[in-house]
Amino acid sequence: MRVLIYGGSFNPPHLGHLRSVQTAVKALRPDKTLLIPAADPPHKALAAGTPAKEHRLAMTALAAEVLPGCEASDMEIRRAGPSYTSDTLRELQAAYPEAELIFLMGTDMLLSIETWHEPEVIMALASLAVFAREAGREGEISTQVEHLREAYGAAVYVLDGEPVTVSSTQVRALLPMRQGREYLTDGVYAYIIRHRLYGAQPDLDWLREKAYAYLKPTRVAHVKGAEEMARRLAVRWGEDESDAAEAAILHDITKKTVGPDQLRLGEKYGIMADKWELENFELLHAKTGAAFAKDVFGVPDHIADAIRYHTTGWPGMTRLEQIVYLADAIELGRKPYPALEAIRKAAFQDLDAAVELCARRTLSYVAERGLPIHPDTAKTQQYYLKKLEDKGAFPIQLDGDANE
Ligand code: ATP
User: Distance from the CA of 17 to the center of ligand 1, in angstroms?
Assistant: First the structure.
């Protein structure tokens, strides 16, 4: 029996790691392959902002999912103190006394192995397999392999294959810039975004793909329109364009859920429906959307709140909240309705006036249909009317049928 062991910080696990394991599996045909994240790597300080070890274990398990026969092990995560490889190999030897243990590593680790705790124990208990992290290190590797064979009697497999030249450090630097996804499996990337590890912000192409999958196909055009309008308004008003896009992409994320299912979704997120939401379940989609976007896509509070207030509005909205509220109402694909053009024009001239008019027009639309009026919309309209008065501005007057 052969057990292949791959240890590391896996902070996060990336495609360079997976390429290395795939190459080793192909060459060495192990019966079992274990990816073992270190709780406390003795020879490498974990970078500031490193997520909890449980997160690294969860990501390693997700990465292992794409490699048949490969699994993540929590043995180092569970063990107290520094995660010495020699201790891990002792445990594994006790668990698999008949097996050949093969410890897989990259170039950097092979070159530094003599500085590890009990290197002689490591090389006595396991064979080593080395996979170059980048091309052009063959000379250094073969010199070191010769040395380890002579000095420790080490058994070393030198693996041949095309590396993916990336490090976790590079990935961590890319993630806050909405980049780096191409170096991760989709499962690991989704996990990082969900928990917003490493200050990650989602790649918006990825977010669109994931978000649209939750929508009715007929709603996608509206969401695209809302994103486009939210971006334009963000540029006009000096808001973060990507935040506006993120909120707009997700604003209707639970809209497909209708009827009592919407109520149940609310319950799942601890949202108590109010009297008006109980009369019209659809109103709830703004609140459930905010909760869902937080849960599944890890959106920060300021984006969740923009989703939360996009239907009824709210007095004293932030600029981002105003932008998303308006973008939903005036995106270019909207069927014409009274005051649409006036709100569109105002949105680029005075956000408060545009919000006041938008809320005013919702109040009359809802009243005309005899539907219950949510008090938040009335409060929003009154708040912005007062705000306009306080700053010496006037609410927008509509002529004739108001469909200007
Ligand atoms: P960091 O950038 O945080 O130092 P890392 O990318 O070097 O992390 P680790 O989890 O510390 O990754 O490394 C675990 C093991 O994977 C080590 O043996 C390392 O040499 C190897 N390794 C890391 N990246 C690659 C790669 N791109 N190709 C092959 N092996 C790699």
Answer: 6
Ligand 1 centre to CA of 211 (Å) is: 32
Domain boundaries, the chain: 2-186, 204-403
Note the pLDDT of residue 16: 96
| Ligand 1 binding pocket mutation candidate from 17, 60, 171, 198 (most atoms within 8 A of CB) | 17
Summarize pLDDT for 204-223 with one digit per residue, the tens. 999 999 999 999 999 999 99
pLDDT at residue 404, as a whole number: 37
- Encode the chain in three state secondary structure: CEEEEEEECCCCCCHHHHHHHHHHHHHHCCCEEEEEECCCCCCCCCCCCCCCHHHHHHHHHHHHCCCCCEEECCHHHHCCCCCCHHHHHHHHHHHCCCCEEEEEEEHHHHHHHHHCCCHHHHHHHEEEEEECCCCCCHHHHHHHHHHHHHHHCCCEEEECCCCCCCCHHHHHHHHHHCCCHHHCCHHHHHHHHHHCHHHCCCCHHHHHHHHHCCCCHHHHHHHHHHHHHHHHHHHHHCCCHHHHHHHHHHCCCCCCCCCHHHHHHHHHCCCCCCHHHHHCHHHHHHHHHHHHHHHHHCCCHHHHHHHHCCCCCCCCCCHHHHHHHHHHHHCCCCCCCCCHHHHHHHHCCCHHHHHHHHHHHHHHHHHHCCCCCCHHHHHHHHHHHHHHHHCCCCCCCCCCCCCC
- CATH dotted code for 204-403: 1.10.3210.10
Q: Does position 403 have pLDDT exceeding 60, yes or no?
A: no
Q: Which atom of ligand 1 is nearest to the CA of 105?
A: 18
Instruction: Give the homologous superfamily in CATH for domain 2-186.
Output: HUPs (3.40.50.620)
Residue 146: pLDDT band with limits 50, 70, 90: very high
pLDDT in tens, 42-69: 877 888 889 999 999 999 999 999 999 9
What's the mean pLDDT in 184-197?
98
Q: Do domains 2-186 and 204-403 have the same CATH topology?
A: no
pLDDT bracket for residue 400 (50, 70, 90): low
297: pLDDT strictly greater than 60: yes
